[in-house]
Each structure stands twice: as structure tokens, then as C-alpha cells.
Amino acid sequence: MNAIVVRPDIAALSFGLVPTVPEGSALLIAGLIGTTVVGYNLFLHASTVQEKWDDPDDLDEVRYDTILLIAIGGLITTAIVVTAAAVFPEGTTIADVGEMADQLEPVMGGFALTFFAIGLFAAGFTSAMSAPLAGAYATAGALGWERDLKSTRFRAIWMTILAVGIVFSGLGFNPVEVILLAQVANGLLLPVLAIFLIYAMNNEELLGEYTNSTLQNMLGILVTLVAIVIGALTLNDNLPAFIDVITGLLGL
Q1: How many domains does the chain have?
Q2: Whole-angstrom Cα distance, residue 154 to residue 139?
Q3: Which end of the chain is more exposed for a tag (fewer CB within 10 A), N or C?
Q4: Runs of H (alpha helix) within the chain
Q5: Contact 165/128 with Cβ under 8 angstroms?
Q6: Which domain holds residue 195?
Q7: DSSP sequence for 155-201
Q8: CB atoms closer than 10 angstroms to residue 246
Q9: For every one of its 252 residues, what pLDDT tens digit does the chain have, with 9 covering 90 and above?
């Protein structure tokens, strides 16, 4: 809705579809990648797929489901970027999330705060549910425990992760810095997960005839290389600032 209301420049938007890495933007790009392709969601999606489908004949339906979810996620990310580019002047610094709603008032009037609040709640609620759930699936799987929503141990992990997040959010840390740090960390960890997935998807002992094709491997390697380059640029350009943010959050 916001991306439509701000009436973006279609020509500029089309030009922006060509990937570029402006000087000094590696940190934000890593954060954008981290929040779009979240590593722990790979575990969550794999676990839910395993529960929903259990036959090779279901692969076409699984692919359709995956492509649809990725497309929706990409559309949401694009809408956020378009809105931010249209509403916030270049060089704008956001110290408080409430400032984002203020910037929308010129184009949305009195509804700006309401729309922004609904969007923020939806984003926070979905993240608060999916991240702990993914952590529970990953932890239970690593420990060899039953991965069942009715399992007491599974629920205990889920609730513990959620409780840690609630406590951490109430400690007075700058939420913008925390969010950026978390998403950048996700972006930096993505190449590790991508390399593991490429290895797993070419393991004939695990997948038999359903291993990756040559084209799939080429695309996977390309994505991994892009993630590695972005990660290297991020560390090269922002390592001192990255350390300052961490030490600031820890009070050191």
C-alpha cells in the first residue's frame, strides 16, 4: 500500500533493478540480504516441508510453494525499499522507528501512523513467531529430539528463545542498531549455509536421483559468490564500526 501511495518514479525504479554496489553501501546491502534470505528460515522451511510432504511425487507442489513464498517475500522487500527511497531524503538518519511514520505523513496524511503501526506490528509478530520456531527446529534436530509442536522439550526451546528476545528488547538498546546488526550477521552467515546446501544437494547417498542439476549448481555457486563478495566488502569497509556497535550494545 505504502509503495503505491508514494508514487515512485517508474523509470528510476526500472534503472534500480540493475544490481550495483555504491561506495559505502556494502553494510546496508548485507543487512538487506540478511533480512530477505534469513538463514534460520531455511531450517524452518525444511522442517515444515518435511512435515507437510513425504513423497517424491510431491516435488512439483513443493517447488511451486517455495517459488510462491520467495516471490511474496521479494515483493514485500521491494515495497519497503521503494517506500524508503521515495519518502526519506538521501542522507536521512533514523534514530527512532517513530520517525518513519512522521516521514509518511506528507503522502498519507492522518493515516500514516495507523498504516505504519499495522505494518510494524505484522513484521514484529511474524518475526517473533518464525525466528524462535526456526531456532527450536534447529536445536531439536541437532540434539536428536522430537520435532513436534506438541513436544514439551520443543515448546521449551521455542518459549526460551522468545523470552530471551523479549528480555533483550527491554534492556534499552537502540532498536535500529540491534536490527541492523542482526540482519548484517544473517547476511554474513549466509555463504556458510549456502555452501552447506550445495554440498548436501549434491550428496547422492542422501538424495539419490534428486541431486542438483548442472544449472542448479551453477546458479547456487553464483549466489554464493555474490554473498561472499558482499560479506567481504562489508567487513573491509565497516569492521571498525561493526566492532563499535557491538561494544556499544554490550556497554564496553
Answers
A1: 1
A2: 9
A3: C
A4: 2-5, 10-16, 26-36, 39-52, 59-87, 98-108, 112-143, 152-169, 175-200, 204-207, 214-250
A5: yes
A6: 2-18+25-250
A7: HHHHHHHHHHHHHHHTS---HHHHHHHHHHHHHHHHHHHHHHHHHHT
A8: 13
A9: 666 666 777 777 777 777 776 676 666 777 777 777 777 777 777 778 877 887 778 888 888 888 888 888 788 877 777 777 777 666 566 666 666 766 667 666 677 777 778 877 887 777 777 778 888 888 887 787 877 777 888 888 888 888 887 777 777 666 666 766 777 777 777 888 888 888 888 988 888 888 888 898 998 898 888 878 777 777 666 666 656 656 665 555
| Beta strand residue intervals within the chain, DSSP E | none
Q: Which of 47, 224, 31, 249 is nearest to 138 (CA)?
A: 47
Say which DSSP state 211 is in.
Answer: S
Assigned C-alpha cell, 211: 541431486
Burial of 185 (0-12, 13-18, 19+ CB in 10 A): middle
The owner of cell 522430537 is: 146
Instruction: Give me 13's grid cell.
Output: 525504479
Closest CA to 51 of 125, 140, 184, 175: 140
> Interior CA angle at 68 toward 17 and 100, to 5°?
55
